[in-house]
Amino acid sequence: xxxxxxxxxxxxxxxxxxxxxxxxxxxxxxxxxxxxxxxxxxxxxxxxxxxxxxxxxxxxxxxxxxxxxxxxxxxxxxxxxxxxxxxxxxxxxxxxxxxxxxxxxxxxxxxxxxxxxxxxxxxxxxxxxxxxxxxxxxxxxxxxxxxxxxxxxxxxxxxxxxxxxxxxxxxxxxxxxxxxxxxxxxxxxxxxxxxxxxxxxxxxxxxxxxxxxxxxxxxxxxxxxxxxxxxxxxxxxxxxxxxxxxxxxxxxxxxxxxxxxxxxxxxxxxxxxxxxxxxxxxxxxxxxxxxxxxxxxxxxxxxxxxxxxxxxxxxxxxxxxxxxxxxxxxxxxxxxxxxxxxxxxxxxxxxxxxxxxxxxxxxxxxxxxxxxxxxxxxxxxxxxxxxxxxxxxxxxxxxxxxxxxxxxxxxxxxxxxxxxxxxxxxxxxxxxxxxxxxxxxxxxxxxxxxxxxxxxxxxxxxxxxxxxxxxxxxxxxxxxxxxxxxxxxxxxxxxxxxxxxxx
Length: 503
Ligand code: FES
Known about the structure:
By secondary structure, the protein is an alpha+beta fold. The chain contains 10 helices and 25 strands. It has helices at 4-8, 33-44, 76-84, 86-110, 131-144, 174-187, 302-312, 356-372, 379-382, 393-412; strands spanning 22-29, 49-52, 68-69, 117-125, 149-151, 162-171, 191-193, 198-204, 207-212, 215-224, 241-252, 261-264, 270-277, 280-291, 317-329, 335-338, 346-350, 426-432, 435-441, 447-450, 462-464, 469-471, 478-480, 485-487, 496-497. The strands form 4 sheets. Strands 3, 4, 5, 6, 11, 12, 13, 14 and 15 form a 9-stranded mixed beta sheet that branches. Strand 8 and strand 9 (207-212) form a beta hairpin. The structure holds FE2/S2 (inorganic) cluster. The site of FE2/S2 (inorganic) cluster has 12 residues, from loops.
Protein backbone atom coordinates (compact mmCIF):
# COMPACT_ATOMS: atom_id res chain seq x y z
CA UNK A 1 0.00 0.00 0.00
CA UNK A 2 1.27 3.48 -0.84
CA UNK A 3 1.14 6.41 1.54
CA UNK A 4 -2.04 8.50 1.37
CA UNK A 5 0.07 11.44 0.19
CA UNK A 6 1.45 9.59 -2.83
CA UNK A 7 -2.03 8.31 -3.64
CA UNK A 8 -3.53 11.78 -3.42
CA UNK A 9 -1.68 13.35 -6.37
CA UNK A 10 -0.82 12.33 -9.90
CA UNK A 11 2.91 11.91 -10.50
CA UNK A 12 4.37 15.41 -10.02
CA UNK A 13 5.41 16.95 -13.36
CA UNK A 14 9.17 17.36 -13.84
CA UNK A 15 11.62 18.21 -16.65
CA UNK A 16 12.01 14.47 -17.33
CA UNK A 17 15.28 12.59 -17.46
CA UNK A 18 18.45 14.56 -18.23
CA UNK A 19 19.54 14.00 -21.86
CA UNK A 20 22.48 16.37 -22.34
CA UNK A 21 25.30 18.16 -20.53
CA UNK A 22 24.21 21.44 -18.99
CA UNK A 23 25.19 24.19 -16.57
CA UNK A 24 23.47 26.14 -13.81
CA UNK A 25 24.26 28.51 -10.95
CA UNK A 26 23.18 25.89 -8.42
CA UNK A 27 22.81 22.12 -8.73
CA UNK A 28 20.66 20.55 -5.99
CA UNK A 29 20.83 16.78 -5.48
CA UNK A 30 17.53 15.35 -4.19
CA UNK A 31 13.97 16.45 -5.01
CA UNK A 32 12.29 15.88 -1.66
CA UNK A 33 10.90 18.57 0.63
CA UNK A 34 14.34 20.02 1.36
CA UNK A 35 15.72 20.08 -2.21
CA UNK A 36 12.52 21.51 -3.67
CA UNK A 37 12.16 24.17 -0.95
CA UNK A 38 15.79 25.24 -1.49
CA UNK A 39 15.21 25.35 -5.26
CA UNK A 40 12.05 27.42 -4.74
CA UNK A 41 13.81 30.12 -2.68
CA UNK A 42 16.84 30.29 -4.99
CA UNK A 43 14.62 30.48 -8.11
CA UNK A 44 12.72 33.33 -6.46
CA UNK A 45 16.00 35.17 -6.00
CA UNK A 46 16.76 34.79 -9.73
CA UNK A 47 19.30 31.94 -9.59
CA UNK A 48 19.44 29.43 -12.43
CA UNK A 49 18.71 26.17 -10.59
CA UNK A 50 18.87 22.51 -11.61
CA UNK A 51 17.55 19.76 -9.31
CA UNK A 52 18.46 16.11 -9.95
CA UNK A 53 16.53 13.21 -8.45
CA UNK A 54 17.22 9.51 -8.86
CA UNK A 55 13.51 8.57 -8.60
CA UNK A 56 10.42 10.77 -8.87
CA UNK A 57 9.79 14.04 -7.02
CA UNK A 58 8.97 13.65 -3.28
CA UNK A 59 8.74 9.87 -3.49
CA UNK A 60 11.18 9.20 -0.64
CA UNK A 61 10.87 10.37 2.96
CA UNK A 62 8.63 13.31 1.95
CA UNK A 63 6.10 10.89 0.48
CA UNK A 64 6.09 8.74 3.62
CA UNK A 65 6.16 11.22 6.51
CA UNK A 66 3.31 12.01 8.91
CA UNK A 67 3.78 15.65 7.82
CA UNK A 68 3.62 17.46 11.14
CA UNK A 69 4.84 21.05 10.98
CA UNK A 70 6.12 21.80 14.45
CA UNK A 71 8.93 23.17 16.58
CA UNK A 72 8.07 20.60 19.29
CA UNK A 73 10.65 17.91 18.67
CA UNK A 74 10.20 15.57 21.61
CA UNK A 75 11.86 16.86 24.79
CA UNK A 76 14.58 18.60 22.80
CA UNK A 77 14.74 21.87 24.75
CA UNK A 78 15.79 20.25 28.02
CA UNK A 79 18.43 18.23 26.15
CA UNK A 80 19.78 21.19 24.14
CA UNK A 81 19.84 23.56 27.13
CA UNK A 82 21.77 21.11 29.30
CA UNK A 83 24.12 20.03 26.55
CA UNK A 84 24.80 23.25 24.66
CA UNK A 85 23.23 26.04 26.74
CA UNK A 86 20.02 28.00 26.68
CA UNK A 87 21.07 30.22 23.75
CA UNK A 88 21.45 27.23 21.43
CA UNK A 89 18.06 25.89 22.58
CA UNK A 90 16.43 29.27 21.96
CA UNK A 91 17.98 29.64 18.51
CA UNK A 92 16.87 26.11 17.60
CA UNK A 93 13.32 27.01 18.62
CA UNK A 94 13.34 30.32 16.77
CA UNK A 95 14.69 28.73 13.58
CA UNK A 96 11.90 26.15 13.63
CA UNK A 97 9.18 28.67 14.49
CA UNK A 98 10.40 30.76 11.56
CA UNK A 99 10.17 27.60 9.44
CA UNK A 100 6.49 27.20 10.41
CA UNK A 101 5.80 30.86 9.60
CA UNK A 102 7.60 30.53 6.24
CA UNK A 103 5.59 27.45 5.25
CA UNK A 104 2.35 29.29 6.03
CA UNK A 105 3.52 32.26 3.95
CA UNK A 106 4.52 30.08 0.97
CA UNK A 107 1.08 28.43 1.02
CA UNK A 108 -0.65 31.80 1.12
CA UNK A 109 1.55 33.53 -1.44
CA UNK A 110 1.23 30.74 -3.99
CA UNK A 111 -2.38 29.79 -3.22
CA UNK A 112 -1.34 26.17 -2.63
CA UNK A 113 -4.26 23.93 -1.80
CA UNK A 114 -2.57 21.34 0.44
CA UNK A 115 -5.09 20.62 3.24
CA UNK A 116 -3.08 22.84 5.60
CA UNK A 117 -4.59 23.20 9.07
CA UNK A 118 -3.29 25.17 12.00
CA UNK A 119 -3.27 22.86 15.03
CA UNK A 120 -1.67 22.49 18.45
CA UNK A 121 1.05 19.96 19.07
CA UNK A 122 1.36 17.95 22.28
CA UNK A 123 3.95 15.72 23.87
CA UNK A 124 2.30 13.69 26.61
CA UNK A 125 2.72 10.87 29.07
CA UNK A 126 0.23 8.40 30.51
CA UNK A 127 2.72 7.32 33.12
CA UNK A 128 2.99 9.03 36.55
CA UNK A 129 6.68 8.17 36.76
CA UNK A 130 7.42 10.25 33.64
CA UNK A 131 5.87 13.49 34.90
CA UNK A 132 9.25 14.73 36.05
CA UNK A 133 10.48 14.74 32.46
CA UNK A 134 7.58 16.99 31.47
CA UNK A 135 8.35 19.29 34.41
CA UNK A 136 12.04 19.52 33.47
CA UNK A 137 11.20 20.36 29.84
CA UNK A 138 8.78 23.05 31.06
CA UNK A 139 11.49 24.61 33.22
CA UNK A 140 13.67 25.17 30.15
CA UNK A 141 10.74 26.19 27.96
CA UNK A 142 10.22 29.20 30.24
CA UNK A 143 13.36 30.62 28.60
CA UNK A 144 12.66 29.31 25.11
CA UNK A 145 8.93 29.21 24.31
CA UNK A 146 6.92 31.32 26.71
CA UNK A 147 3.67 30.20 25.06
CA UNK A 148 4.22 26.52 25.90
CA UNK A 149 1.56 25.24 28.33
CA UNK A 150 1.55 22.35 30.73
CA UNK A 151 -1.80 20.56 30.80
CA UNK A 152 -3.50 17.21 31.26
CA UNK A 153 -6.43 18.03 29.00
CA UNK A 154 -6.31 16.66 25.47
CA UNK A 155 -8.88 15.32 23.01
CA UNK A 156 -7.21 11.88 22.86
CA UNK A 157 -9.52 8.92 23.62
CA UNK A 158 -7.63 8.09 26.84
CA UNK A 159 -6.44 9.92 29.93
CA UNK A 160 -3.00 11.51 29.95
CA UNK A 161 -1.32 12.46 33.21
CA UNK A 162 0.70 15.36 31.86
CA UNK A 163 1.43 17.05 28.53
CA UNK A 164 3.08 20.08 26.97
CA UNK A 165 1.14 22.02 24.38
CA UNK A 166 2.72 24.14 21.62
CA UNK A 167 0.20 26.44 19.92
CA UNK A 168 -0.12 27.54 16.28
CA UNK A 169 1.69 24.60 14.73
CA UNK A 170 0.37 22.87 11.60
CA UNK A 171 -0.23 19.83 9.43
CA UNK A 172 -0.71 19.42 5.69
CA UNK A 173 -0.48 17.11 2.68
CA UNK A 174 3.27 17.31 1.82
CA UNK A 175 2.86 16.10 -1.78
CA UNK A 176 0.30 18.78 -2.62
CA UNK A 177 2.57 21.39 -1.02
CA UNK A 178 5.64 20.22 -2.96
CA UNK A 179 3.56 20.21 -6.15
CA UNK A 180 2.83 23.92 -5.57
CA UNK A 181 6.55 24.68 -5.19
CA UNK A 182 7.45 22.61 -8.27
CA UNK A 183 4.90 24.54 -10.34
CA UNK A 184 6.57 27.79 -9.30
CA UNK A 185 10.09 26.48 -10.07
CA UNK A 186 9.19 25.14 -13.51
CA UNK A 187 7.22 28.28 -14.43
CA UNK A 188 10.30 30.37 -13.59
CA UNK A 189 12.74 28.40 -15.75
CA UNK A 190 14.06 26.10 -13.04
CA UNK A 191 14.72 22.49 -14.10
CA UNK A 192 14.00 19.33 -12.12
CA UNK A 193 15.41 16.18 -13.72
CA UNK A 194 13.96 12.91 -12.43
CA UNK A 195 15.22 9.34 -12.90
CA UNK A 196 18.61 11.01 -12.98
CA UNK A 197 21.15 9.36 -10.73
CA UNK A 198 24.03 11.42 -9.42
CA UNK A 199 27.16 9.29 -9.02
CA UNK A 200 29.91 11.83 -8.37
CA UNK A 201 30.69 15.46 -7.62
CA UNK A 202 34.11 16.74 -8.66
CA UNK A 203 35.73 20.01 -7.68
CA UNK A 204 36.74 22.16 -10.67
CA UNK A 205 38.63 25.46 -10.66
CA UNK A 206 35.56 27.68 -10.63
CA UNK A 207 32.84 25.35 -9.37
CA UNK A 208 31.75 21.73 -9.59
CA UNK A 209 31.18 19.04 -12.15
CA UNK A 210 28.23 16.86 -11.16
CA UNK A 211 28.09 13.47 -12.86
CA UNK A 212 24.52 12.29 -13.56
CA UNK A 213 23.52 9.27 -15.68
CA UNK A 214 25.68 9.66 -18.82
CA UNK A 215 25.83 13.46 -18.50
CA UNK A 216 27.56 16.28 -16.67
CA UNK A 217 26.26 19.39 -14.98
CA UNK A 218 28.58 22.35 -14.31
CA UNK A 219 27.55 24.52 -11.37
CA UNK A 220 29.09 27.13 -9.09
CA UNK A 221 27.19 25.81 -6.07
CA UNK A 222 26.14 22.28 -5.15
CA UNK A 223 23.58 21.41 -2.47
CA UNK A 224 23.27 17.82 -1.21
CA UNK A 225 19.66 17.35 -0.13
CA UNK A 226 19.34 13.60 -0.63
CA UNK A 227 18.11 12.09 2.63
CA UNK A 228 21.51 10.49 3.39
CA UNK A 229 24.52 11.89 1.45
CA UNK A 230 25.88 9.29 -0.98
CA UNK A 231 29.37 10.85 -1.09
CA UNK A 232 31.70 9.11 1.35
CA UNK A 233 34.72 11.40 1.49
CA UNK A 234 35.29 14.09 2.44
CA UNK A 235 32.44 14.60 4.87
CA UNK A 236 32.15 11.10 6.38
CA UNK A 237 28.45 11.69 7.10
CA UNK A 238 27.80 7.95 7.00
CA UNK A 239 29.88 7.66 10.20
CA UNK A 240 27.90 10.37 12.01
CA UNK A 241 24.32 9.18 11.41
CA UNK A 242 22.13 6.12 11.32
CA UNK A 243 18.63 5.48 9.99
CA UNK A 244 15.47 4.59 11.84
CA UNK A 245 12.49 2.82 10.34
CA UNK A 246 8.96 3.51 11.55
CA UNK A 247 5.47 2.60 10.40
CA UNK A 248 2.20 4.43 9.85
CA UNK A 249 -1.41 3.24 9.77
CA UNK A 250 -4.34 5.26 8.45
CA UNK A 251 -7.55 4.19 10.18
CA UNK A 252 -11.23 4.98 9.77
CA UNK A 253 -13.58 4.94 12.72
CA UNK A 254 -17.06 6.25 13.54
CA UNK A 255 -15.65 7.72 16.78
CA UNK A 256 -14.73 11.41 17.04
CA UNK A 257 -11.08 11.91 16.04
CA UNK A 258 -8.61 14.11 17.94
CA UNK A 259 -8.10 17.41 16.15
CA UNK A 260 -4.55 18.17 17.34
CA UNK A 261 -1.17 16.41 16.83
CA UNK A 262 0.24 14.15 19.54
CA UNK A 263 3.28 12.10 20.43
CA UNK A 264 4.06 10.38 23.74
CA UNK A 265 7.37 10.25 25.52
CA UNK A 266 7.06 6.74 26.99
CA UNK A 267 8.14 3.66 25.07
CA UNK A 268 6.58 2.44 22.86
CA UNK A 269 6.17 5.78 21.14
CA UNK A 270 2.94 6.51 19.26
CA UNK A 271 2.27 9.52 17.08
CA UNK A 272 -1.24 10.69 16.14
CA UNK A 273 -2.68 13.21 13.70
CA UNK A 274 -5.83 13.56 11.65
CA UNK A 275 -5.58 13.67 7.86
CA UNK A 276 -7.82 13.93 4.80
CA UNK A 277 -8.10 10.79 2.69
CA UNK A 278 -10.50 10.65 -0.26
CA UNK A 279 -12.33 13.63 1.20
CA UNK A 280 -12.84 12.04 4.62
CA UNK A 281 -11.07 12.41 7.96
CA UNK A 282 -8.90 9.52 9.02
CA UNK A 283 -6.44 9.11 11.89
CA UNK A 284 -2.76 8.43 11.29
CA UNK A 285 -1.07 6.35 13.98
CA UNK A 286 2.71 6.15 13.71
CA UNK A 287 5.27 4.20 15.71
CA UNK A 288 6.99 0.79 16.04
CA UNK A 289 10.34 2.48 15.38
CA UNK A 290 13.57 0.48 15.19
CA UNK A 291 17.02 0.94 13.79
CA UNK A 292 16.94 0.20 10.04
CA UNK A 293 18.47 -3.17 9.30
CA UNK A 294 17.27 -4.85 12.49
CA UNK A 295 15.32 -8.02 11.87
CA UNK A 296 11.59 -7.35 12.34
CA UNK A 297 8.33 -9.14 11.70
CA UNK A 298 4.94 -7.88 10.61
CA UNK A 299 3.61 -8.42 14.16
CA UNK A 300 6.33 -6.20 15.64
CA UNK A 301 5.60 -3.34 13.23
CA UNK A 302 2.25 -2.90 11.45
CA UNK A 303 0.74 -5.61 13.67
CA UNK A 304 1.60 -3.68 16.82
CA UNK A 305 -0.02 -0.51 15.44
CA UNK A 306 -3.12 -2.44 14.38
CA UNK A 307 -3.44 -3.76 17.92
CA UNK A 308 -3.16 -0.23 19.32
CA UNK A 309 -5.75 1.07 16.84
CA UNK A 310 -8.25 -1.66 17.87
CA UNK A 311 -7.58 -0.97 21.55
CA UNK A 312 -8.39 2.73 21.09
CA UNK A 313 -11.13 2.36 18.50
CA UNK A 314 -12.70 -1.13 18.42
CA UNK A 315 -14.38 -0.34 15.08
CA UNK A 316 -11.08 0.81 13.50
CA UNK A 317 -10.65 -0.15 9.86
CA UNK A 318 -7.18 0.14 8.33
CA UNK A 319 -7.37 2.10 5.06
CA UNK A 320 -3.66 2.79 4.53
CA UNK A 321 -0.30 1.64 5.78
CA UNK A 322 3.26 2.53 4.91
CA UNK A 323 6.72 2.80 6.40
CA UNK A 324 9.41 5.43 6.41
CA UNK A 325 13.11 5.95 7.16
CA UNK A 326 14.63 8.88 9.04
CA UNK A 327 18.28 9.84 9.26
CA UNK A 328 19.22 10.38 12.90
CA UNK A 329 22.26 12.36 14.06
CA UNK A 330 24.19 11.50 17.20
CA UNK A 331 23.47 14.82 18.92
CA UNK A 332 19.81 15.24 17.80
CA UNK A 333 20.60 18.31 15.65
CA UNK A 334 20.41 18.23 11.85
CA UNK A 335 23.55 18.78 9.75
CA UNK A 336 22.98 21.92 7.69
CA UNK A 337 25.53 24.19 6.02
CA UNK A 338 29.02 23.76 4.54
CA UNK A 339 29.58 20.16 3.45
CA UNK A 340 33.31 20.17 4.20
CA UNK A 341 36.06 22.76 4.54
CA UNK A 342 37.68 21.07 1.51
CA UNK A 343 34.65 21.73 -0.71
CA UNK A 344 33.80 25.47 -0.68
CA UNK A 345 30.36 26.43 -2.09
CA UNK A 346 29.06 22.92 -1.52
CA UNK A 347 26.32 22.55 1.11
CA UNK A 348 24.51 19.71 2.83
CA UNK A 349 21.19 19.28 4.64
CA UNK A 350 20.60 15.91 6.29
CA UNK A 351 19.86 14.15 9.59
CA UNK A 352 16.46 15.70 10.25
CA UNK A 353 15.76 13.33 13.16
CA UNK A 354 12.10 12.71 12.13
CA UNK A 355 11.21 16.41 12.01
CA UNK A 356 11.81 16.97 8.31
CA UNK A 357 8.88 19.24 7.41
CA UNK A 358 9.96 22.20 9.52
CA UNK A 359 13.68 21.40 9.38
CA UNK A 360 13.58 21.36 5.55
CA UNK A 361 12.45 24.96 5.58
CA UNK A 362 15.11 25.86 8.15
CA UNK A 363 17.75 24.17 5.95
CA UNK A 364 16.55 25.84 2.76
CA UNK A 365 16.82 29.26 4.42
CA UNK A 366 20.26 28.65 5.91
CA UNK A 367 21.59 27.51 2.52
CA UNK A 368 19.85 30.41 0.75
CA UNK A 369 21.48 32.85 3.20
CA UNK A 370 24.87 31.25 2.74
CA UNK A 371 24.65 31.52 -1.06
CA UNK A 372 23.11 34.99 -1.20
CA UNK A 373 24.42 36.72 1.96
CA UNK A 374 27.38 34.61 2.89
CA UNK A 375 25.95 33.63 6.27
CA UNK A 376 22.91 32.85 8.42
CA UNK A 377 22.08 33.64 12.04
CA UNK A 378 21.17 29.95 12.56
CA UNK A 379 24.27 28.54 10.89
CA UNK A 380 26.22 27.89 14.09
CA UNK A 381 23.48 25.77 15.72
CA UNK A 382 23.16 23.37 12.78
CA UNK A 383 26.76 23.54 11.50
CA UNK A 384 27.33 20.36 9.52
CA UNK A 385 31.08 20.23 10.07
CA UNK A 386 30.83 20.31 13.89
CA UNK A 387 32.54 17.65 15.93
CA UNK A 388 29.91 17.49 18.69
CA UNK A 389 28.27 14.22 17.53
CA UNK A 390 31.34 12.26 18.50
CA UNK A 391 30.63 13.29 22.12
CA UNK A 392 27.54 11.08 22.11
CA UNK A 393 29.58 8.04 23.08
CA UNK A 394 26.67 5.62 23.62
CA UNK A 395 25.17 6.17 20.17
CA UNK A 396 28.62 6.10 18.58
CA UNK A 397 29.35 2.79 20.28
CA UNK A 398 26.02 1.32 19.12
CA UNK A 399 26.74 2.38 15.55
CA UNK A 400 30.21 0.91 15.56
CA UNK A 401 29.04 -2.36 17.17
CA UNK A 402 26.28 -2.78 14.55
CA UNK A 403 28.63 -2.00 11.65
CA UNK A 404 31.41 -4.25 12.87
CA UNK A 405 29.02 -7.09 13.67
CA UNK A 406 27.53 -6.90 10.21
CA UNK A 407 30.89 -6.79 8.45
CA UNK A 408 32.22 -9.73 10.46
CA UNK A 409 29.05 -11.75 9.97
CA UNK A 410 30.25 -12.35 6.44
CA UNK A 411 33.02 -14.54 7.78
CA UNK A 412 31.97 -16.03 11.07
CA UNK A 413 28.20 -16.46 11.33
CA UNK A 414 26.81 -19.86 10.44
CA UNK A 415 23.84 -19.62 8.12
CA UNK A 416 20.68 -20.63 9.97
CA UNK A 417 18.48 -21.03 6.93
CA UNK A 418 18.08 -23.60 4.24
CA UNK A 419 16.32 -22.55 1.03
CA UNK A 420 13.38 -24.84 1.99
CA UNK A 421 12.93 -22.84 5.22
CA UNK A 422 11.93 -19.74 3.26
CA UNK A 423 8.18 -19.21 3.20
CA UNK A 424 6.24 -17.78 0.29
CA UNK A 425 6.46 -13.98 -0.08
CA UNK A 426 9.38 -13.98 2.33
CA UNK A 427 13.16 -14.03 2.25
CA UNK A 428 16.36 -14.75 4.10
CA UNK A 429 20.05 -15.47 3.75
CA UNK A 430 21.22 -19.01 2.93
CA UNK A 431 24.71 -20.36 2.35
CA UNK A 432 25.96 -22.38 -0.61
CA UNK A 433 29.55 -23.49 -1.13
CA UNK A 434 30.61 -21.14 1.67
CA UNK A 435 28.97 -18.12 0.08
CA UNK A 436 26.04 -16.09 1.47
CA UNK A 437 23.07 -15.79 -0.86
CA UNK A 438 19.97 -13.64 -0.34
CA UNK A 439 16.80 -15.45 -1.36
CA UNK A 440 13.31 -14.09 -1.92
CA UNK A 441 10.50 -16.58 -2.67
CA UNK A 442 7.42 -15.06 -4.32
CA UNK A 443 3.75 -16.09 -3.88
CA UNK A 444 4.06 -18.58 -6.77
CA UNK A 445 7.07 -20.28 -5.19
CA UNK A 446 9.61 -18.76 -7.60
CA UNK A 447 13.02 -17.89 -6.10
CA UNK A 448 15.02 -14.69 -6.70
CA UNK A 449 18.68 -14.60 -5.64
CA UNK A 450 20.89 -11.63 -4.78
CA UNK A 451 24.29 -11.07 -3.23
CA UNK A 452 23.20 -9.84 0.27
CA UNK A 453 26.10 -7.41 0.59
CA UNK A 454 25.37 -3.69 0.75
CA UNK A 455 26.77 -1.77 -2.23
CA UNK A 456 27.67 1.15 0.03
CA UNK A 457 30.42 -0.28 2.26
CA UNK A 458 29.84 -4.01 2.21
CA UNK A 459 27.73 -4.82 5.29
CA UNK A 460 25.58 -7.94 5.24
CA UNK A 461 21.91 -7.13 4.63
CA UNK A 462 18.95 -8.26 6.74
CA UNK A 463 15.64 -9.37 5.29
CA UNK A 464 12.80 -7.07 6.46
CA UNK A 465 9.70 -9.24 6.48
CA UNK A 466 7.31 -6.36 7.24
CA UNK A 467 8.21 -4.43 4.07
CA UNK A 468 9.71 -7.30 2.00
CA UNK A 469 12.99 -5.46 1.48
CA UNK A 470 16.72 -6.00 2.05
CA UNK A 471 17.88 -3.49 4.71
CA UNK A 472 21.41 -2.56 5.76
CA UNK A 473 22.14 -2.45 9.52
CA UNK A 474 25.17 -0.19 9.06
CA UNK A 475 23.82 3.06 7.57
CA UNK A 476 20.30 2.08 6.52
CA UNK A 477 20.47 1.58 2.73
CA UNK A 478 17.54 -0.44 1.39
CA UNK A 479 16.94 -2.62 -1.66
CA UNK A 480 13.73 -4.16 -2.93
CA UNK A 481 13.18 -7.92 -2.91
CA UNK A 482 14.79 -8.20 -6.36
CA UNK A 483 17.83 -6.11 -5.36
CA UNK A 484 16.93 -2.68 -6.78
CA UNK A 485 18.35 0.15 -4.68
CA UNK A 486 15.55 2.06 -2.91
CA UNK A 487 17.36 4.25 -0.43
CA UNK A 488 20.89 5.56 0.13
CA UNK A 489 23.60 6.10 1.00
CA UNK A 490 24.09 3.15 -1.42
CA UNK A 491 23.30 4.08 -5.01
CA UNK A 492 23.94 0.81 -6.85
CA UNK A 493 21.61 -2.20 -7.10
CA UNK A 494 22.56 -5.58 -5.60
CA UNK A 495 24.29 -8.14 -7.75
CA UNK A 496 21.79 -10.78 -8.90
CA UNK A 497 22.52 -14.51 -9.05
CA UNK A 498 21.04 -16.97 -11.50
CA UNK A 499 20.80 -20.28 -9.70
CA UNK A 500 19.36 -23.42 -11.19
CA UNK A 501 16.99 -25.09 -8.76
CA UNK A 502 17.30 -28.85 -8.32
CA UNK A 503 14.00 -30.68 -8.43
FE1 FES B 1 26.62 1.71 4.53
FE2 FES B 1 25.14 -0.42 3.94
S1 FES B 1 24.51 1.59 4.15
S2 FES B 1 27.26 -0.33 4.35
